[in-house]
Write a structure and sequence with these properties.
The protein has 303 residues and is of the alpha/beta class. The protein has twelve helices and eight strands. The protein has an eight-stranded parallel sheet with strand order 1-8-7-6-5-4-3-2. Strand 4, helix 6 (140-153) and strand 5 (158-163) form a beta-alpha-beta unit. The chain starts with 13 loop residues before the first helix and ends in a 6-residue tail after the last helix. This is Methylisocitrate lyase. InterPro entries: ICL/PEPM (IPR039556), Isocitrate_lyase_ph_CS (IPR018523), PrpB (IPR012695), Pyrv/PenolPyrv_kinase-like_dom (IPR015813), Pyrv_kinase-like_dom_sf (IPR040442).
């Protein structure tokens, strides 16, 4: 049943539902969902929570991931994914869209849009994908102030502090920053772009009791590991941030190439979602039934 018209609408705030999912046994798996349809498909596959990547958002808009979209633009994505799926959603908050007051505005806006969790990163603008080179780090105390602002502004949002320090400051800098961010109010730490199993293991060992998030992005600096392997390393959450967008984009590329070549889409039919599959995914029949029942209930009494 579509979330919008289902009878099992969640009563708990999104942040509380994210914490409940995190408290269940095993690592919390957070596949990226770049729009409402992707969110519906992830939910149908059995996932209990989702991730919204800044890189996926910007790429879907035809833009690079350089911190140039706005809070309102992100909220548009949050609303459609949360509304479509009803699942708790972790959102990429980039650098917080400014300093402390801007971070507080972002937190309240994301909560109002339906987000369950957010992560902030300690880069300076123009920020980059965590797996690219020449990233510029903010002073640790400045980032800690943003984390404190987020923790103060949130009503239920789960706050994750991301640090990109591994490339420039190594494990020592990563751990030192993580400890400072936890003291400032972060609920968990996201050590970005770790390049070996040994690095993941050392960060885990040096941050006992701290919830940790791992990023399993394709074509990046992190070795390919499964959710089970991250769990065995002691990590609590894992994201696959851009996977859904990469697959969708590649399929669209093949479609347009075939259409330009053949002047028709026949060759692509086996790769297409059918009309029946689409309508089932979006709950067309349930929406029509609801509309019909409302219309019937508003008819005047017959003489």
């Amino acid at each position: 049943m579509p979330y919008l018209i289902g009878s099992d609408l969640p009563e708990a705030p999104a942040g509380a539902r994210f914490r409940a999912a995190l408290a269940r046994p095993g690592i919390l798996r957070l596949p990226g969902a770049h729009n409402g349809m992707a969110a519906l498909q992830a939910r149908a596959a059995g996932f209990q929570a989702l991730y919204l990547s800044g890189a996926a958002m910007t790429a879907s808009m035809g833009l690079p991931d350089l911190g140039i979209i706005t809070v309102d633009e992100v909220c548009f994505f949050i609303r459609q994914i949360a509304r479509a799926s009803g699942l708790p959603l972790l959102v990429d908050g980039d650098t917080g869209y400014g300093e402390a007051l801007n971070v507080m505005h972002m937190v309240r806006s994301f909560e109002d849009a339906g987000a369950a969790a957010v992560h902030l990163e300690d880069q300076l603008l123009p920020k980059k994908c965590g797996h690219l080179n020449d990233k510029k780090l903010a002073p640790a105390q400045d980032m800690a102030a943003k984390v404190a602002a987020a923790a103060r502004a949130r009503r239920h949002l789960f706050v994750i502090a991301r640090t990109d320090a591994a490339a420039a400051e190594g494990i020592e800098g990563t751990v030192a920053r993580a400890k400072l961010y936890v003291e400032a109010g972060a609920d968990a730490i996201f050590p970005e772009a770790l390049t070996s199993v040994e690095m993941f293991r050392e960060v885990r060992a040096r941050l006992p009791g701290v919830k940790l998030l791992a990023n399993m992005t394709e074509f990046g600096r992190t070795p390919a590991l499964t959710a089970q392997e991250f769990q065995e390393l002691g990590y609590d959450m894992v994201i696959w941030p851009v996977s859904s967008l990469r697959v969708a984009n590649k399929a669209q590329e093949r479609l347009y190439a075939a259409l330009a070549r053949d002047g028709e889409t026949t060759a692509m039919l086996p790769e297409m979602q059918t009309r029946a599959e689409l309508y089932d995914a979006i709950g067309l029949n349930a929406f029509e039934a609801l509309d019909a029942s409302i219309a019937r209930s508003l008819l005047p009494a017959q003489g």
